[in-house]
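tl;dr need the bound structure. longer version: we got a ligand (alpha-L-arabinofuranose) that a collaborator sent over and nobodys looked at where it sits. i said id run it. heres the input, straight from their email, havent touched it
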Amino acid sequence: MRAEIRLLAALLALLCLTGCAVRQTTEPQEGELLVVGFSQLGSESSWRLANTASMTAALSREKGYELLLENAKQKQDNQLAAVRNFILQGVDLIVIAPVAETGWESVLQEAKEAQIPVIIMDREVAVEDENLYLSSIGSDFLREGERAVEWLSGELERRGRGEDEIRILHLQGTYGATSQLMRTKPIEDVVREKSNWSFAAQFPADYTEAKGYEVVRDYLRVDPDIDVIYSENDNMTFGAMRALDEAGLSYGADGDVILISFDAVRKALQYCLEGRINLCVECNPLHGPRVEELIRQYEEGQSIPKHIYVEELIFTRDDLTQELIDSREY
Ligand code: AHR
C-alpha cells in the first residue's frame, strides 16, 4: 500500500513538473501577444473610467494581449485617426467605443480591406452594412430609458400627482451617441403623449459633471419651477445636485424635485440610499471580460453573435443596502 502511495506521489510530482513546464513555455512571448488597438472615446465620466479599467485588466499581457489604448477626448476625428493608425500598424484586432453613431463607414471599410476585425463596444455605429464589424457589445439603452419613464409615471401616481402639470429638466449626453439617442427617445415620446408633462428645458451636457452643474445652475436662476430632472448620466446628476443645493431647492425621496440618473455608479447608489437620488438606472461598464471572451471565441473560429446586450437593473432607495453598494465593482 505504502509503495502504491509513493508511486502515486511520484506520478503527481511528475505531472506537476510537466504542468509547470507547459505553463512556462506557453507564457506569451513578445511576438505571440495578440495586438489589440482600442479607441476609447474619452474620460468624461466615472462610468468611462470604470470601462477603461475593465478593458485594460481584461486585455493584459499576462492574458496574452498587447493593448494599444488611445483616448479620443470625446472627438470623433481623434477616433478616426486612432483607428487609421491601428490599421497602419497592422494590429490583430480593433475595439472601438464610438463617441457618436454616424460617420464610421469609410474607416470600417478600410479596416475590413486590411482584414482586421473590429468589435464595437458600449455605444453602437449606424452603418448600412453590418458586416463591416464583427460584433457589438453594450447596453440596451432604449430599455434603460423606457424603464426610467415607466418608473416616473408610477412614482407620480404614487405621490398623487398623476394629473398634475409636470415640468421636466432634461440633461442629455453627448449628441448622437447611442446612449443619448436611446435614453432621450422614451422621455420625448411620453412628453408628446401626455398632455400634462412638458420639458422645462433640454440641454446637452456632454456627460460631464462640470457641464451638468453649469447648465442647471444657469437655468435655475431664471426658472426654478421644475418637478423632475431626467439626467442621462450620474456625473451630470452630481453637477445638477450641486446647483440645486446652491439654489436652495429640495430633491430626492423626501424632496420636491425628482432626480432620475443613469449609470448607477457606486457614488450615485450611495446618494440613492441616502434618499438624495430617486432612481438609478444601471448601465454596466464592465465590458473588458466580455470583449476578451468574444476575442477568444473569434480566435477559436466559433460563431459570434452580432449584438450582445448586458443585463441591467434599476434601483430606488428600497432596493439598496450598504453591503450591496460596498461590494459593487464600480
Ligand atoms: O455610453 C455610455 C455612457 O457614456 C454612460 O452613461 C456615460 O456615463 C458615459 O460617459
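gonna send this back to them w/ a short note. The chain has two domains: 32-137+285-299, 141-283+316-326.
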